[in-house]
């Protein structure tokens, strides 16, 4: 019988499920995770490596409880909180804590990128939205306030793509996260 592993990484709990081909839950396991820490007001960060470690423990326990032969597993699905940024170096190692979706930090005083882009945004009446997006960008914040970490960063991953990288060694994500 075919079985599927589903990993759900939330902000408060990490869950692993094993389903059979009929959609029935064969086993599951849940463990709380420290949601985030805050170095300053409005900051929300999380240790990506610790997060993945908890996910690995949860998954191992769900698989142990399922008592299913390895050959019967046909797919793994990973879901986690969106918009959490994990800056990684060339080896895929985090260069700093992940900046979670709960984070509200902003970067002020940025110049708008390109005259053409600014002109088009102004003409269509959306310049204020682009300004806001630019101010809220975690990439811009890192470039301005932590330039040494920005320089070390090879890629910005989502939490799910970081988890996928830890499982497979490959950096990939689904199109819905792009």
Tell me what you see in this structure:
The chain is an alpha+beta fold and 178 residues long. It has one domain: Nucleotidyltransferase, domain 5 (2-Layer Sandwich), CATH 3.30.420.40. It contains six helices and eight strands. It has a four-stranded mixed sheet, with helices on one face. Strands 4-7 form a two-stranded antiparallel ribbon. Strands 6-8 form a two-stranded antiparallel ribbon. Strand 2 and strand 3 form a beta hairpin.
A few lines on this structure:
By secondary structure, the protein is α+β, with helices and mostly antiparallel strands. It is built from six helices and eight strands; from the N terminus they run ββββαβββααααβα.
């Amino acid at each position: 019988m075919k079985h599927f592993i589903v990993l759900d990484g939330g902000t408060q709990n990490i869950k692993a499920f094993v389903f059979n081909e009929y959609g029935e839950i064969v086993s599951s396991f849940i463990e709380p995770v420290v949601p985030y820490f805050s170095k300053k007001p409005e900051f929300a960060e999380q240790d990506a490596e610790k997060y993945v470690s908890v996910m690995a423990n949860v998954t191992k326990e769900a698989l142990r409880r399922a008592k299913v032969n390895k050959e019967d597993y046909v797919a793994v699905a990973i879901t986690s909180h969106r918009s959490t940024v994990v800056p990684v170096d060339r080896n895929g190692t985090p260069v700093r804590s992940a900046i979670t979706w709960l984070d509200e930090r902003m970067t002020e005083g940025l110049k708008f990128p390109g005259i053409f882009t600014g002109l088009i945004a102004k003409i269509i009446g959306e310049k204020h939205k682009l300004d806001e997006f630019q101010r809220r960008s975690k990439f811009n914040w890192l470039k301005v306030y932590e330039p040494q970490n920005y320089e070390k960063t090879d890629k910005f991953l989502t939490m799910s793509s970081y988890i996928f990288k830890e499982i497979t060694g490959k950096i990939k994500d689904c199109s819905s996260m792009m």
